[in-house]
Amino acid sequence: MNEKVLLHFQDTSADLTDIEQYLGEGGYEATRKALTEYEPDGLVNLVKESNLRGRGGAGFPTGLKWSFVPKDTGKPVYLLCNADESEPGTFKDREIIEHDPHQLLEGIIIAAYAIRCEIAYIYIRGEMALGYKVLVKAIADARNKGFLGKNVFGTQLSIDIHVHRGAGAYICGEETGLIESLEGKRAYPRIKPPFPAVYGVFGCPTIVNNVETLACVKHIIERGSDWFKSIGPEGGPGPKLYCVSGHVRKPGVYEAPMGTPLRDLIDRYAGGMLPGRTLKAVIPGGSSVPILRAEETAINMDFDSVAKAGSMLGSAGIIVMDNTTCMVRALRTITHFYHHESCGQCTPCREGTGWLEKLLIRIDSGVGTDEDLKVLDSVAQGMMGTTICVLADAAAMPVRSFLAKFADEFEAHVRGEDCRADAVHRRVA
Amino acid sequence: MHNGEQPTPHESVAFSEAALAEFNDIVSRYPERRAALLPTLWVAQREFGWISTTVQAYVAELLKLPIAWVEGVVSFYTMFYRRPMGTHHLQVCTNLSCQLRGSDEILDAVERKLGIRCGETTKDNKFSLDRVECLAACGGAPVVQAGDDYIENLDVTKTLELIDRLATGKES
Ligand SMILES: Cc1cc2nc3c(=O)[nH]c(=O)nc-3n(C[C@H](O)[C@H](O)[C@H](O)COP(=O)(O)O)c2cc1C
Ligand code: SF4
Questions:
Q1: CB A248 within 8 A of CB A270
Q2: Taking a C-beta distance cutoff of 8 angstroms, is the pair B144, B154 a contact?
Q3: In a domain, A234, yes or no
Q4: pTM for the model
């Protein structure tokens, strides 16, 4: 397995949350270099050349996004670090925040300089009380060292970071929901365009980037864009954090090159299936992406390869299910989540997620009909592409893919046959 | 509060000196006062335990916002409590990665042990119970959040032992 970069904390005896120990490992040299040796546009170009693609889910090229910030509008520019990490099956950003917060702060300071921003906010989900404390301390320590505040690193620049704590709402992870929430409102996503790069928080140009994306920026400055591109597929390279959960022996976050085979992540990194069990299905990128059957899992985990296989890399939340899993129950759980988290602005999403859940409760409870299966698919179909944000699609995609790929299991349930999986079919509420 | 009753709001509330200083510092971080709403509500919840209608009115006054605005925001976010919570607030994750590793059994066992259902508080006000969506801790599934702390890699036995430790004050 390769040298760990993002999870370097696992390979060192130093406590990287302690700024002195972090500095002892060469910490903040990348930031010093970026701020004293580069022009902002030079950094944007460097990140463009690295082919870094956003790790928040959509895989948008980071350097390109930065270049959309209009110049000379006379308005301040804001950088928002998205630390809302709430897509079920995703738990990588928390690892960075709790164990190596300064690599994230470095990424934020460098990105802020590149887009000419003086105030950045880290929006962290409310449940992460520990992460919040770690970040507040790390920022105070960096400020004491002169890495944040006025005249950072002895330059004329002023850059500061504040941590903003969410309060329990998945939709705050969607970038315009996040912006509304930061402004002290209900997190109702905005219609795009205008895109945040032009009209974001407080009506100003705003860049929203994921935690892991910004951590990568620090390493690109330190080691160069050629180094970054040499790891995995050139069109979307770099070190990557994969979250493996579910029915494996060693669930956890693993760092491996972009494009690592999914089977390697399951069998080698995560220790393989639980004793005596066999692989049934994998959700490769957080609960909103289409599911893969066991025989479809011989794929590489990078944006383009997973898309070619009909799913998405998403947030790299790999949820592994074995032969004991009831697909009806699993889908019911996923659908409950999206129903609970729909912000309610758009009718197809607000009503649609509710219908999906109700239908799945019926089918799971053994009172569903053939007709219910048809309605389920048509409701899901009708939700896609019709709403302000893509939460509606995120709810619909798993439904359509589970129905297509495990049709026999759903049909058996509506015929009143026993569940074909050796599943735990207990709690109904 | 017990099951189904409306909680009685605080009679009157005001921030301590320290909390007021913290509030002023919070306001200074944003170009618009309204953006301080969520952080101010966090301070209020820490100070007063939960966000009653009295607390909403107080925060509205501090930030010069309509009370209805504050109420609208409070009701959108699940972590602002609109009922007093027990000494120990247990939240059992029941999303997919935890469910695959047995969280349904854990929730059943906790409900039986405490004699309450999700959304309720025990009569002695020691425990409140909720189910919660994915906590971003699936590597340690099944997970229960007790207060601010994540307790990972649980099973039914370990969860019941955790409750015993909390009840006897051996764990905060
Ligand atoms: C419903 C929904 C939830 C999202 N949740 C998150 C999240 O928790 N964390 C995150 O970084 N991005 C999330 N995103 C993606 C963000 O909108 C945004 O694309 C991302 O933060 C951009 O960062 P990146 O370019 O660095 O990937 C979500 C998107 C949607 C539609
Ligand atoms: S799609 Fe759903 S979550 Fe997104 S804005 Fe519409 S109602 Fe809200």
A1: yes
A2: yes
A3: no
A4: 0.97
Q: What is the ipTM of this complex?
A: 0.95
Contact A196, A218 (CB under 8 A): no
Query: What residues of B are in contact with residue A184 (Cβ under 8 Å)?
Result: 32, 34-38, 63, 65, 73
Residue A78 and residue A222 in one domain: yes
Phi-psi bin for B123: left (phi > 0), alpha (psi -120 to 50), beta?
A: alpha
CATH code assigned at A369 = 1.20.1440.230
A169 and A254 together in one domain: no
Whether residues A208 and A276 fall in one domain? no
The 10s digit of each residue's pLDDT in A51-110 is 999 999 999 999 999 999 999 899 999 999 999 999 999 999 999 999 999 999 999 999
Q: What is the pLDDT of residues A268-309, one digit of tens each?
A: 999 999 999 999 999 999 999 999 999 999 999 999 999 999
How many other CB atoms are there within 10 angstroms of residue A41's CB atom? Answer: 13
Cα(A146)–Cα(A136) distance, rounded to whole angstroms? 16
Strands (E), A47-113: 78-83
B153 touches chain A (CB under 8 A): no
CA of B113 to the centre of ligand 1 (A): 39
Helical H segments across A122-174, by residue range: 129-144
DSSP A417: P
Point out the residue among A94, A162, A164 whose CB comes nearest to the CB of B38: A164
Strand arrangement, sheet containing B120-121:
B120-121, B127-132, B88-93, B144-146, B149-151
Structure-token match 């692989």, residue found: A279
Whether residue A4 lies inside any domain: the answer is: no
